# Entry
Amino acid sequence: MRLFGQKLSIAATFGFAIIAINILAALLAPVIAPFGEADMIGDVWDAPSWLKEEGEEADAGEVTASQTLLGLDNLGRDMFSRLLYGARTTITIALITTCLSFTIGCLLGFAAAVSGGWLDMLLSRAVDALMAIPTLIFALLVLSVLGTSIPVLIGTVAVLDSTRVFRLSRAVAMNIAVLEYVEAARLRGEGLGWVMGREILPNALPPLIAEFGLRFCFAFIFIASLSFLGLGIQPPFADWGSMVRDNAQAIVFGGIAPLIPAAAIALLTIGVNLVVDWILSIHAARRA
# Structure
């Protein structure tokens, strides 16, 4: 199988398959999910149907075991349905956050590299100041003060993540800005926006695309971590991080409820990293 004129490795094919399955699950959650994300349908931490003994029957008023593919959570909600809705919430917010962080980081990084002088100094020192503060502590402080609404969550994580994007985009743009075709554009009288959008960006895409995948993984895991701590995505929305937190006590009773969203987080992260490794290998081969 080939993509963008390049043959996909087995690992990259596996990574793309994982990403595709998660995207489909997020898009089709209302169609696939047998129940709503907040519907309470049975006993707390009821086991999945395939773990129940043959002949075991549900109590009166409860759904049958065949309807609960992954069992129920700490409030008796269907884990499979919440996993699907959680994919929609977590992946969408992580994707929006990553796009916003790249917009901020790339614009400021390119501007600093092309302009130089006081603008580069000002932006670089501001980024250094933000990166000097531990990311998790800074996020917890901001969310505790401003609240845990989704816009505040997206803005906070995007600003923190944009510092890493700024560093990379500035470094890549500085190597490109000294090349002859960029100098020719400047001599023609092209403005800063033209040089950044038409000369710098197209030639900086390969490393930025790979970094986008890594930053998405960071945002995805970071948002799940904040949800686990209670300052991320709030009820009634399903979220993989909060699902791990809510069902953590099930481990004591031999349940698998917290392992399901944890495995989903790990699997998607692995899939994205496999694709990123493939993109980086293509970029390295072209430069060699």
